[in-house]
Amino acid sequence: MYFNKVLHLLAVINLSVQNAYVQGTPTIDYQFEDFGTNDTSARSFATDSNIAQSKLGGPCSYYENRPCTIYGAYCRNEICTCNPYSDITDLSRNECLPKANKTGDPCEVDLQCSSTLSGNGKCGPKKVCICTEGSNPNDDGTECLMGDKFSGEVCSNSMDCFGYPDKSECLNGACQCKSGFVTSSNSSESKLGCLPIIDRTGGECMNKNQCQKGTLGKWSDCAVPEYYRRYYGPNRKECICPEDTYERSLVYGESDICYKIANRIGDSCEESYQCRYNLGKDSDCSPDGECVCLGNSIPSEDGMSCLPSGVLIGNPCQFPEQCVGKPNISSDCSENEICLCKEGFVQNANMSDCVPIRKKVGETCVVPWQCDNIGNNIGCSERSGVKKGTGEKICRCKHGYISGPGKNNCLKKATDIQDSCSIDAQCIPLLKLSRCIRGRCQCVNGAEFRYKAAYGTSTKECVLESV
Ligand SMILES: *[C@@H]1O[C@H](CO)[C@@H](O)[C@H](O)[C@H]1NC(C)=O
Ligand SMILES: *[C@@H]1O[C@H](CO)[C@@H](O)[C@H](O)[C@H]1NC(C)=O
Ligand SMILES: *[C@@H]1O[C@H](CO)[C@@H](O)[C@H](O)[C@H]1NC(C)=O
Ligand SMILES: *[C@@H]1O[C@H](CO)[C@@H](O)[C@H](O)[C@H]1NC(C)=O
Ligand SMILES: *[C@@H]1O[C@H](CO)[C@@H](O)[C@H](O)[C@H]1NC(C)=O
User: 285 with 275: CB under 8 angstroms?
Assistant: First the structure.
């Protein structure tokens, strides 16, 4: 009883605060302290001030010390009033009578039962609320519903349908839930009647259709939330966004939605956050509704993250496709997770590519170290006669050298007779009539070396004796 009083008191304070807000006048809590008591002291206190305050619908005032003393009533707009949410006003009895919550609740008059219970309750002979004839209580007795045919059952009249008129109706020869209500396809659950669709997490449910058919959507569920199970046991089920989903508010305080969290690039999605939640900030939901990697990033091997691509040689990587060059062909991600050029390749000048190591003079190149394998005295430059910086570069022997017969080395051109050599071509540029004989540049048979120096210049040549 005391507990009930406190609840009433709280309800009244709440209402009077709303009231005060509307009127713009402050109310003071202690003035309610005697409100709700039904004992003689309270009545005598009231009687001392004024007689009208103990009549429902009569005048009252907080300020003139004329409180409303009817049990459950309060002073609203200076009229002694019952709480419209929890009570009905019975003027003939001058009492506020509680509205029934369910069948079996005690009652004095029909209105206590018919103001709730879907309008189909009445006060039965045992002074408890019962359903009127033609209606049936739902499973927890909070409603009296017309008809006895459940959703999906044949009907000829809406009155036949359990839950008519609020929740179901006869459509196309079968009872169906009205919009805003669902039934389970599970036939034993359909005996619960039509259940309201719940659009928010935390709303009590019996069946996951209640959650999934509303804004919460297909990823939501009706379950006992983990925190609830721990503290309150497994009896109250509510609409939840399960662990592999996240929740977002659609209209604040009114409707929520559950989104499935994507685990892999390529999973379907409706919005970015589904992808980014697990796959990181470089992922997004494409217009086609698929999680993709943004910009230059590419899916990791397990598809569970987006990693940078175009990683320069010498920089960290996790798998070959991230590296510049042709992954697995010219470049690779090494065991210690650094982008490297594969065997047979070397990096270019700005580490942005892997170029093939050259084996022969005359092959194209972009950097000199591509030609290093050919030996010393080689560089990478334009062909002779082409202006520097304008043409394709090739591996070229340095000035003063010529390529060997297999084009796989550079040999020094002779600068004097008797210079060491391995092929004639080393000697001939200096001395037309010379050959490489026993490892030295020598004049051919019948020719004779001649050295002339005059006026600061000199010539060396092999000259036929007859000349
Ligand atoms: C209040 O007291 C009156 C008179 O004693 C009684 O008839 C009525 O049932 C009481 N109301 C409540 C709610 O206890
Ligand atoms: C109905 O439920 C409310 C809230 O739980 C409670 O305060 C009130 O006493 C109940 N009414 C009846 C008649 O049991
Ligand atoms: C139907 O629902 C009830 C209660 O939730 C459950 O015990 C039963 O296993 C369900 N039956 C089927 C076929 O899903
Ligand atoms: C590169 O090699 C790895 C390991 O052998 C392989 O899984 C991957 O598919 C290859 N990538 C390409 C582009 O060939
Ligand atoms: C590296 O140099 C090449 C030209 O040699 C150029 O095309 C490329 O954009 C450069 N890359 C970077 C990352 O600087």
Answer: yes
Tell whether 366 and 421 lie within a shared domain.
Answer: no
What is the total count of domains within the chain?
4
Identify whether 165 is preceded by a cis peptide bond (ω within 30 of 0): yes
pLDDT tens digits for range 35-79: 344 333 333 334 444 444 578 888 888 777 788 888 888 888 788
Same domain, 359 and 431: no
Higher pLDDT, 165 or 293: 293
Asked if 443 and 394 sit in the same domain, the reply is: no
Q: Are residues 363 and 451 in the same domain?
A: no
Which of 37, 82, 95, 108 to probe ligand 1 with, by most ligand atoms within 8 A of CB? Answer: 95
Please name the residue whose Cα sits nearest to atom 14 of ligand 3: 186
pTM over 0.70: no
pLDDT band at 384 (very low <50, low <70, confident <90, very high): confident
Token pair 């093939």: residue: 356
Ligand nearest to the CA of residue 209, numbered in listed order: 3
CB atoms within 10 A of CB 244: 12
Which of 98, 113, 143 is the C-terminal boundary of a domain? 98
Residue 435's domain comprises: 415-464
Q: Which is more confidently placed, 143 or 307?
A: 307
325 Cβ closer than 6 Å to some ligand 4 atom = no
Q: Same domain, yes or no, for 279 and 332?
A: no
CA of 352 relative to ligand 5 center, distance in Å: 6
Residue ending a domain, choose from 403, 438, 454 = 403
